[in-house]
Amino acid sequence: MSFRRGTCKSFAISIIQIITIICQVLTEEPRFAEPIPNVTVALGRDASLPCVVEHLGTYKVAWIHIDRQMILTIHRHVITRLARFSVSHDNAMTWLLHVSQVQQEDRGYYMCQVNTNPMISQVGYLQVVVPPNILDDESTQSAVAVRENQNISLVCKADGFPTPKIMWRREDGQPISVERRKKVTVYEGDSLSLQRISRTEMGAYLCIATNAVPPSVSKRIIVDVEFSPMIWVPNQLVGAPAGTDVTVDCHTEAHPRAISYWVYDNVMVLPTKKYAVTTEENSYRAHMKLTVRNLQTGDFGNYRCISKNSLGETEGSIRLYEIPMPSTSPKATEMKSTANKESVRRVNVSRAIQREVTERPSVVRAQLDRAPERDSAHHVYRAPHPQHASGTSTHRYWQQSFFVIIVLVQMDYFF
């Protein structure tokens, strides 16, 4: 009997403990298990905001967009009329607010609220990033023209979130002249000012907008620098023999594109069998060539290259004159053999003459060293005057040398 009483008593205590626990669970207030994270999403994508609640019990969870002051959902029901919002529950503690095809107006703070007394809530932020977009209505048009040495400003406006950064580059990779003194490869700013622009700055400029949200976008602006034609003639005097072909050329620069042609004897030169006319163009530069075939007497004279556009015209002049046809040179073998023979003959003659010249002064010296000359008429010995003897010796020596030179010339002539 006592055993039964003890068993019933312990069982009753167990039931009381279970009921107490159940009551504690049922009476425990709801609380948030974790904060709502801040979510970043690109424009047009989908996003979800989680709200984790413990011990919810019979209480309800609601989502509110604070910036709009709009109730979106209560428990499992969607209150807003915006079909892009929905809610889901994973049968545990997490309540998810879904936003499909996010728009910029969806950016802001979202509140997860539990209807306890007093109410509990927490807030999360939905960040909507927008890739850059260039505003054509507020930017410079795609093609602009300006006269050389004038000023021009290129403007490029873009929106997006975060605010885009604007950069300028030249499409051909050439540097950009800033304030006519500084050259940079990349220029930052929504306005690019080009001072006293020159023809070398003509071309395509790229406006690039970026804000770390892909994709970056760009706009291409063509800048045309207009100027009247200029001509440069490499060779103003050109000589060629009759019967040959000759080519004359001119270099021109002009924008807008110029009309270029050749004139001879006040008549425009057209492509024929006699004339070949070609023009090679590169941007605002052109290379004009005129080929005259089988030159005759009437082809020599003054040729003019002329270039015209809407801003003016200019011309260059080239004088074509006749030169004689170059003669053919003798064969190398014949020249070599003749030269060898001639050189041998000249060496032999020069050696013989040299011996003669070296021997004759000794004879002259021997005659001068003899005893004083005796006068046959008066049988009187007279000593020779020193100056007279010296002069006689010099005079004879030059006579002999002159004779040797004459002999050498005559021998060279006959050989």
UniProtKB/TrEMBL annotation:
Annotated ranges, domain Ig-like: 30-115, 132-218, 229-319
Subcellular location per the Swiss-Prot or TrEMBL entry: Cell membrane
PROSITE patterns reported for this sequence: IG_LIKE
Keywords: Cell membrane, Disulfide bond, Glycoprotein, Immunoglobulin domain, Membrane, Repeat, Signal
GO cellular component: neuron projection; plasma membrane
Protein's UniProt keywords contain Transcription regulation: no
Region (Disordered): 373-392
Extent of the signal sequence: 1-27
The name this protein goes by in its record: Ig-like domain-containing protein
Lineage, broadest ranks: Eukaryota, Metazoa, Ecdysozoa, Arthropoda, Hexapoda
